[in-house]
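Structure (tokenized):
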């Protein structure tokens, strides 16, 4: 074979070898570049996840939470007597009107002195009766005491702080009863002596002094129909000093349960 031909063959083989080497180099570069790119992506994603800000609760979360809170409320905003209602001792405003004029309401008050029943009388004090009803459903009175007891006069309770300044967070006015409305067992709202200062505090007339000496500025909303002996027991533990605060024996309300009849 002529030397010139052999030289061309060797030259072509060398070119093929060089081309193959070049392709192999490019494959290595592409492979290394892909590895570097993937590594960079992994690092970037990791940094992003570590530094990602905590998202704020969405409107959906609030709605869900609101639905849970509202599960024990009726559409009119009144607590559902058939639901499990959490205890609540502070409110922003007077509650919605929740009493049905065609129903009858009895509050069963269980105390450490015994149990007595209050027949609510919305016809005498509509706002006061409604207020007592709603607060009772919220277990507002549970654990509170009869902090002022004046023998032969009144026993007073309904304060979340167990003194004469406790309040549910709002105040309201109601009808004043006609003269002669107070009898032993009559339940009425306590107030500061000024109009529109009803809150959660109430008293039960416990003796003849209460019947005769109370002015008609306290809204009547109920009457004890059973358990007057319990009222007498709490009355007997009272004090004539410092306007009955504190009594010699302090009795506590355990629960107030509402019974509704048609």
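Design, position by position:
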């Amino acid at each position: 074979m002529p030397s010139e031909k052999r030289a061309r063959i060797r030259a072509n083989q060398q070119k093929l070898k060089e081309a193959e080497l070049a392709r192999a180099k490019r494959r290595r570069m592409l492979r290394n570049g892909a590895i570097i790119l993937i590594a960079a992506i992994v690092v970037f994603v990791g940094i992003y996840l570590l530094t990602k800000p905590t998202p704020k609760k969405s409107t959906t979360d609030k709605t869900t939470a609101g639905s849970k809170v509202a599960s024990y409320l009726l559409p009119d905003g009144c607590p559902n007597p058939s639901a499990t209602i959490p205890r609540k001792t502070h409110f922003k405003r007077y509650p919605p009107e929740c009493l049905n004029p065609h129903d009858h309401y009895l509050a069963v008050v269980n105390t450490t002195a015994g149990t007595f029943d209050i027949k609510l009388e919305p016809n005498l004090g509509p706002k006061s009766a409604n207020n007592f009803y709603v607060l009772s459903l919220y277990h507002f009175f549970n654990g509170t005491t009869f902090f002022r007891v004046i023998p032969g006069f009144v026993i007073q309770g309904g304060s979340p702080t167990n003194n004469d300044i406790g309040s549910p967070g709002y105040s309201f006015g109601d009808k004043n009863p006609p003269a002669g409305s107070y009898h032993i067992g009559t339940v009425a709202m306590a107030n500061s002596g000024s109009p529109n200062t009803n809150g959660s505090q109430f008293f039960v007339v416990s003796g003849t002094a209460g019947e005769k000496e109370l002015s008609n500025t306290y809204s009547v909303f109920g009457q004890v129909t059973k358990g007057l002996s319990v009222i007498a027991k709490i009355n007997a533990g009272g004090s004539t000093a410092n306007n009955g605060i504190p009594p010699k024996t302090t009795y506590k309300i355990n629960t107030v349960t509402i019974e509704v009849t048609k």
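Reviewer-requested clarification: The helical segments are 3-51, 59-69, 126-137, 208-213, 228-236. The two ends are 125 Å apart (CA to CA).
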